[in-house]
Amino acid sequence: MEEYDIVLAGDFASAGDIGARVAAECAVQWDMGMRTGLLHLPASPNRRIVADVHRCVRERIAEIVTLDLPVSVRLLVVHAPTALASLPISFVNLRADRVVLVHECAPDAETLGRLVGFARAPISWAPTNRWVRAAIDSLGLPIEIEDVDWRPPVTGYRRRPRAAADRKRFIIGHIDFGGRSHWPDSAEALAAVLPSDGSVDVRLLGLPPAALLLGEKMPEAWLVRELGAMTIEAFLDGLDALVYAPVKMPETVPDAVLGLALAKGCVVATLPHLRPHLGDGPSYAECRDLLSTAVSTLERPDLPDVLERAAKSASFQFSWRFHVERVTRLAGLHAPAAPKPASRPVPRTRRILFLASNGVGLGHVSRLLAIANRAAGRFEPIFVSHAQALPLLRGSAHPSEYLPSLSDTGADPRLWDRWLRSELERLIFAYEAEAVVFDGNNPYPGIIEAAQAQPPCKLVWVRRGMNGFIASPYLANARHFDLIIEPGEIAAERDAGATAAFRHEALQVDPVTLLDPSDLLDREEAIRVLGLDPVRPAVLVHLGAGAHRDVVSLVDSVVKCLRAFDGLQIVIAEWANASAPLSLWPYTTVVSAYPLSRYLRAFDFCISAAGYNSFHEAIVFGVPTVFIATTHRAVDDQKGRAGYAQDRGAALELPEDQLFHLPAICSVMLDPRARAVIQQKCGLLARPNGAERAASAIAELLRAA
Q: Quick one: angle between helices 612-620 and 638-647, nearest 10?
């Protein structure tokens, strides 16, 4: 028989603030040293348990209870029991010493009568506010009612940081607590509270009733998230103010959410008829003035003091001490136990999912590998990648999982994104991952929703600059990430891409390369491993994977030119995800080693594309290089990088349509004096490897959680 101190029961997939209430109670009970169980009683099938409750399970401060086997509990607390009165569920295996039915809305006499048989134990009734208490009293039934309203405890929440000073608009939020009574009474009133004119940023958790929308669809200026898809705490962390505008006293008051918002330093603006219940913490105004009241509060010079007073008011209105006293008494313990701020249990190894986009080359994977290889025991990287990179990852020291990319599946992008969310959720839960680190140009909604649905999973975006002409449609999703890391660009002053204007929101680190200079083989060893002749010059040709240009024809033209130089050894790099084989030319050597940079000292010079990895490895490792940049609109700005290096004397740029200059350029590259000058200029541009700083930033994010 499983034994628990407290079991919290209810429909944990329902709208409202039950999830936030349960999470708050679990936290206090964990600090008290109690074993808490969670009994999910779904009123409707096929609905997701809200993220707040899921987080309690992931953090191991509560356990899921099933009634397949006998369960014994000192105290059974049933939240919102009115909705559960007709459940066809057998409780024959549940033995409770005491039952408390926590009513968040007024029940009727018939419902109360059915609930008396909920469990074979003494039952007491606990209203959550004075209006529910009055409704129960008016029924005149001989039932025991708790003397103090059952209000959610507020304790131990991390105060949210203030918004960035350079942000132009305040972020105003609203939550759907289920039911028309939690919204203003008209579309015009809602538009006054949540404008769509861009004067403020509006975020909603859950959808407003269709009758309250002025148009046929949601305003494009609003950012709307599915109710229950993320924790209330995570939603509040993204707000400056929470507005709550029920036109009249609602059936239920979302105490847990409003108290949490106040405790976390979020301005709460609501209507005056809630003052007797919520106290002096919120700002009060009529519906038409609610938004202006929230904004004026946020603009007050003494805002920190205002928020501090509001948090103290919340701690009084929603005191954890009341919860300690009541559960201690009702569970039959001998003396109250004050909760001690105990650290939540965490996995033995702090695991992180490293998700690499399916790029044209291997840049995304290589950057993540560079960061993962410098974890130094601070976290365990688990790679999630696509087919092309999987063999490389399985040759590393890191566990890896395979997820087909959008291009590989050929699926409808919306369906694929929903599938991606489902698969990532599964992996986050299975590995107990505490963060997802994504490297790619397109932070799909499925990635964000998967992490937010599996709290306390953090989100990190490794966002490369020097973007091409086609901007990602998902750049605005940057606001959902806890950390954005921008790998440095030596040619950053030439960056005119879509992210260049948003560098302030990212942590800037030095260029990230998989290897450090000390990791490269010396010239003699590299030549031996590659089977080259040490007395003859050698050139490396690596011109990309061929996804956005005819790399076979380009290599053919380059090889024909290089053959004119007697004794020159021609080595062709074949990418792991190349679109065509490059073993087509006699008297050449094809290399497909990864990482190829380990062998760069074997070559006198290179002829290369100017992708992120190739470019920075050439400069940092001092390899004289001729850059033939890919200029396709869909790739990063390789021409900008190549032109910058040439202007600084650190490389030569050769446009693809000017290959007739290649013989003269190769003659220069075969001159040791020219190569020495280029290497000297490379040394002036070279910077340390930023992978270590990126890994440290991710570790710091986990420590701060």
A: 20
Q: Does residue 414 lie within any of the structural domains?
A: yes
End-to-end CA distance of the chain: 36
Looking up tokens 């205002």, which residue turns up?
Answer: 306
Q: Above 70 in pLDDT, residue 348?
A: no
pLDDT at 249: 75
Q: Are 513 and 617 in contact (CB under 8 A)?
A: yes
439 and 400 in one domain?
yes
Chain centre distance of CA 519? 33
Closest CA to 702 of 383, 448, 237, 346: 346
C-alpha distances (whole Å) from 690 to each of 61, 483, 696 are 37, 15, 10
Q: Quick check: 621 and 642 in contact, CB under 8 A?
A: no
pLDDT, tens digit (0-9, with 9 covering 90-100), for 525-584: 999 999 999 999 999 999 876 566 788 889 999 999 999 999 999 999 986 655 556 667
User: Do residues 375 and 293 both lie within one domain?
Assistant: no
Residue carrying structure tokens 């489902």: 422
CATH number of domain containing 264? 3.40.50.2000
pLDDT digits (tens, 9 = 90+) for 209-252: 888 887 667 787 888 888 877 888 888 888 999 999 997 777 78
Beta partners for 174?
204
> CA 596 to CA 575: how far, in whole Å?
9
Task: Return the structure tokens found at 58.
Answer: 């992931």
Between CA 572 and CA 591 the distance in angstroms is 6
| CA–CA gap between residue 587 and residue 597 (Å, rounded) | 23
Residues in the chain: 705
Who has greater pLDDT, 326 or 455? 326
CA distance 497 to 475: 12
Instruction: Pick the closest to residue 686 from 619, 630, 627, 613 (CA basis).
Output: 619
Same domain, 362 and 303: no
DSSP letter, residue 145: B
Q: Indicate the helix (H) or strand (E) that contains 668.
A: helix 662-669
Rounded to two decimals, what is the model's pTM? 0.82
Give the domain extent around 421: 351-512+691-703
Rg, C-alpha atoms of the chain: 31
Rounded Cα distance, 149 and 666, in Å: 84
- What distance in Å separates the CA atoms of residue 185 and residue 271, rounded to the nearest whole number? 13
Count the domains in the chain: 4
How is residue 438 annotated by DSSP? E
444 and 562: one domain? no
Give CA–CA dist 665/699, Å, rounded: 46
Q: Structure tokens of 426?
A: 């599964």
Name the nearest CA neighbour of 556 among 588, 585, 591, 589.
585
Q: What is the pLDDT of residue 163?
A: 46
Domain membership flag for residue 585? yes
Q: What is the residue type of 648?
A: R
Helix (H, G, I), strand (E, B) or coil at 43: coil
